[in-house]
Amino acid sequence: MKIETKKAFFDEPLYLESGRILQPFEVQYETYGELNTDKSNVIVITHALSGSHHCAGIYEGDRKAGWWDNLIGDHKAVDTTKYFVICMNNIGSCFGSTSPQSINPATNKPYRFKFPVLTISDIVKAQIRVLKSLDISNVEAIIGGSMGGMQALCYAIEYPTFAKHIIALATTAYTRPWAIAFNKVTIEAIRNDPDFKDGYYDPKDIEENGLNGLAIGRMAGHISYLSPSSMDDKFSRRYVHQDGLYELFGRFEVERYLEYNGYNFPKNFDPLSYLYIAKTMNIFNASRGSDTLAQSLYKIKSNLHLISFSGDMLFRSSEMEEIYNTMIEQNMTNVTYNEIQSDYGHDAFLVEVDKFKDQIVEILKG
Predict the structure, then answer these.
(1) Containing domain of residue 335, as a range?
(2) Quick one: CA dihedral 294, 307, 31, 273, positive or negative?
């Protein structure tokens, strides 16, 4: 599989939903496969909160492949021998695109809290800039899960004829209090960590030493990404062998799992980026700018395919079913809905690809 990593630079202003301007800005992106002569084989992949542009393949010297490598690649469901796949790092994220740690041209110092609050619409608008710079005016499909699914819905509503197919997995039309509450735990844990230094920390210190506040918040996040059933299957009541049962801080396996994932996360993810992305997700509402969700969804011209997971506790199946029912009630026939039976939880869209990859193949066949 041919993989290329690039960065697009734009000096023209990006007018944001908040009324602010981002100028200049950069978008890091990665492409897989070959673009055909008429540029008709493009598939856009949109990523979730902690994802990046590296969605498939493996870098030399790395042990871990891209986050959706089980879906994307040569002769896989999203077949890179046939399609030209592009995944862009969201602006606001910390993997190469303009973010709170980027230099503010007005001060020649990092933006930090002077960085603007972004919406999903702003992120998609920046991606459209990249695609237009590549002379891509429409695509075969846009595929994304979780926050990536929010972006996919935004494409469908705000750029109604841009994609033939929109495939949104494990997402929602507007963020509910349950998800906002989990984000609040992380936000408060970060803000109240003295090593956060009110946002004026040295990123190198965080990379080396981590940040306990973000680690604790990430533990809460991991709970929302799983489910009671998947935790039972994965950990049961197993106890860490090296820890004594009657030691006060002896641990069950589930506790060790949360510690490992929580305390390693800040070494690879910027705390300010996390705060901004959490805010972006919290304020997401597909009906913003319209009186009702129905009016927003009625704009969709692409074929919208919704895939939910029965065990998803973060964005429940009923949330995606609401999108489907709202469109059906308006006699819209360009929508499908499939609830995958899964006990895994929210992360099933990343882990249980075997349960929906055939559906994606069929969708792409038309």
Answers:
(1) 3-175+283-365
(2) positive
